[in-house]
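Data availability (excerpt). The following record was deposited with the supplementary files.
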Amino acid sequence: MSRWENIRSSMRSQPGRSESFIQQAPSRTVTLGRVQPQAPAYRTIYCNDRDANFAHRYRGNSISTTKYNFFTFLPKGLYEQFRRVANLYFLTVSILSATPYSPVHPVTNVVPLSLVLLVSLIKEAFEDWKRFQNDMTINNTPVDVLQDQRWESIPWKKLQVGDIIKVKQDGFFPADMLLLASTNADGVCYIETANLDGETNLKIRKALERTWDYITPEKACEFKGEVQCEQPNNSLYTFTGNLVIDNQTLPLSPNQILLRGCSLKNTEFIVGVVIFTGHETKVMMNSMNVPSKRSTLERKLDKLILTLFGTLFTMCLIGAIGSVEDQFNPNRRFLVVLLTMLTLLTLYSTIIPISLYVSIEMVKFIQSTQFINKDLNMYHAETDTPALARTSNLNEELGQVEYIFSDKTGTLTRNLMEFFKCTIGGEIYGTGMTEIERGVAERKGIKVQEVQTSTNPLREKGFNFDDVRLMRGAWRNEPNPDACKEFFRCLAICHTVLPEGEESPEKIKYQAASPDEAALVLAAKHFGFFFYRRTPTMIYVRESHAERMGKIQDVSYEILNVLEFNSTRKRQSVVCRYPDGRLVLYCKGADTVIYERLVGASDDLKKVTREHLEQFGSAGLRTLCLAYKDLAPDIYESWNEKFIQAKSSLRDREKKLDEVAELIEKDLILIGATAIEDKLQEGVPDCIETLSRAGIKIWVLTGDKMETAINIAYACNLLNNDMKQFTISSETDAIREVEERGDQVEIARFMKEEVKRQLKKCLDEAQQYFHTFSGPKLALIIDGKCLMYALDPSLRTMLLNFSLNCSSVVCCRVSPLQKAQVTSLVKKGARKITLSIGDGANDVSMIQAAHIGVGISGLEGMQAVMASDFAIAQFRFLKDLLLVHGRWSYIRLCKVVTYFFYKNLTFTLTQFGSPLILDFLDVSSSLSKRYPELYKEGIQSIFFKWRVVAIWAFFAVYQSLVFYYFVSDSSSKGQGSSGKMFGLWDVSTMAFTCVVVTVNLRLLMICNSITRWHYISVGGSIVAWFLFIFLYSGIMTPYDRQENIFGVIYVLMSTLYFYVTLLLVPIAALLGDFIYLGVQRWFFPYDYQIVQEIHKDEADDSGRTDLLGIGNHLTPDEARSYALSQLPREISNTRDSPSTLPGTSHFSLHSSVYMHHRRHGMLLAELA
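Predicted structure:
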């Protein structure tokens, strides 16, 4: 006996309410973000009885998506901060500085660290406060609850399990509810699930007939049923439970469940009972905790800090051993060395910049809010949607992406489905040419004539079919009119579409669960089979020319059973009864599924139709096969009993329903197939081609069939005829033969061996291309069945090695889980920086699995956007996001980090603010997109390698030696105006003044353009130093010693020595940098430096990205012009920072460009 049956038995054996059941199945504590399946337990809910439900202690309906609360903010926030290596180091130094052996006051370390932590915690608190405010808005949304025979308005957060509530039209459901009654006929209501699964099409929910009357508060008060159902879980599409009312047990299905986050449409109001609340609702259990993502640059920064700490420790150890001679105590040798090391550790602690992380956070924040979010080039005017950086932590990661994983439908394509062609009874209908067919023809050099636009007055969005043989009843003259009639009736009857508006062909609107289904019903209307009304048990169709030419009649079809579509079945069936009593099963679904269930006869029709399907696939069309079957009444009645029994089952209901469906969905008669076009988004081919030139490899992960995916890949330049393509498919004769035997163990074993063989064959064949420069690019196409076995631990290494050498990969027929697995395979196995982009709920796992997730705010709701790190409106905006903002962010952050270390290595004051506003951008946004090869510098980490850091450190050491020896030696015989020799404070002040001037001038040398902000920042930093030293050396206190700095700057500035030294020492210090930069730029130029030289004489009117003023009333063109007019004029500065000698660059491979650069380089050297 099953666990559920045991529980039910114990319930029956006890009088009264099932109190024992309450104790046996307590409510589980569900952790927010948990997505694993929950344990199979059950709960009982007492409707409209809070006292009875109190024993359960169900969770309340208040939700919290914050990271912290009042008590955890400080400990958790500090823990997050001290996970950073630098902050832990500064904490150690601060503690050491408080000891009596420290040569510096604790304030010098404690205050900066406190400031760093304060700024970081304030940022965390601000972001969490916004989440808290959003939670409060949701939790305090009012809803009508039944109390004392009337509707009382209370906030969502006060709802409890078992409450009976009323939700009005366009309102959102505050919790997971059981639908009791609706103002529509037959207890039907319509809901939109865009927030849940991304689908904007309306869906039907129907209350049990037993509860239709509980619509008024007086009647609802009488409802005292019990809901016995599954425990909270994350499955959006399943629900198992029973409603026990008046000793009658009624089975519940997902059709009676209204989930939190969905909204009510086309219904005045509904009444329902709350079953899951708060974090136990299905939508909240699908809300994963967003993974903590750290950029690659930040992880490298931790390693660099550890290396510097090792260097610091070595310096302190050598210094401590060297000082033992002066402070030698034979009885305490180790103690002397240890205390001296602690002293030197605090003295030299400035080698690691404490303000670096704050500066980085500020830079990232400005990049996100002022550059990415306000870029007009990523603004979609049609939907009024700008780009949105949902996090600022990954800006620089955008500049190093090497792999992009993309969904197809709605991401590369528009998700705008149009009925385009069909095949009926072995005959193809439809004369149009798809965009893909045009592209194929153009590649073959065939001239394509423009297709004339149809003059059909009923043409509308979703129907792009042209063939007079089927229009206006002409199909009656075709060789197969009966097949045409069955085809049209299948389109008009086999669906779950809802009609809206007036019942006329011109004004009616269809709400469907998918754009494909709406297009099919729309096609039936244009063919003369107009579906205009639906009830829970009837479908009404106005048929034209069905019986004879010119006759129009309204026909009602009784819907007896609906076998719904799901990802496992890949088909949908409807059992209907004609007015004359004829019983028919209509079925539509994927070709592979339908063909397995066809009757043995008519092999010629199946063969011809399969050829037509391949033609449609080659044209990039989405196909569905249509079939039917006449049912004998006795056979149907016997099957229907099994169907009702399966539908009433509490355990494995979906599995049993699928098994029952298999009993009747067989021996079908093939009618034909439909072909629907999914149009490409604007600019997708150009964007993919540009990203490929940038060194980015793009993989398409789609659930579509292989032929459709391949041809979409051709249309968007992901594949081309010059590529060497490798295909790993389960559609082979050998695999089909094994599958026909039906032995699942044998199928799994054979499939694994076959995939291994195909992978090895592809890998061996591809070896000859791996190490050749001129060989073709490689492409891999693999379907979901083969991918399942290729991801096995024993084969995934082989798959990874092969796929990483491919320029493009297309994975077809893959599930959402497989999308995430492929992404993780490259992310973890290859340690490459990955980006996933999608627009639907089925892309969320893939988006969260990648280093960077990008959501497209398209037709499939906002769930992908809510799970993403960056949001854009169109796929083509990736070009600006990566090549412009990603590259700029990477370059800016690299130079900020290296400059900070250089500055601290030369023992300077931190120049607060200068790295935040200075322009480190090398080329304009237009040139970044014109020369996408520049992006490869980020993929190869050109600007932040150990050699880069070593070169900066070398010049820092060189400059520190110049400061020390030049200033100390030149001042050894120096005198003030009074004749007094210069002392320690005079020499130190002179040296630090030279350092301040030098590092600020060095900062200018790494800038690529000069604006007024550069002058203000650099000049302001130098002036700030002088103002500080004037004040500090002009103040005398009773605690100062005689050798204090009092008046030292005034003494120095009264001598000629000060001005000569201030002029010559920075020149000597920067001479090495100047020579290195000249040699590097002249003989070993970077790609961007060559581009600078090529375009140095052109007017730069787009040095920065166009900014979007959200909220103004300008048109996009006016806003663009205004934004450009506000930008400061820039003066070109062709010098840049040293990194590492790259050798011959990409552009240098083209001799003409390289020679052009050399001429410009020699001219630059002469001017210098």
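Summary of structural features: The chain has a mean pLDDT of 78.
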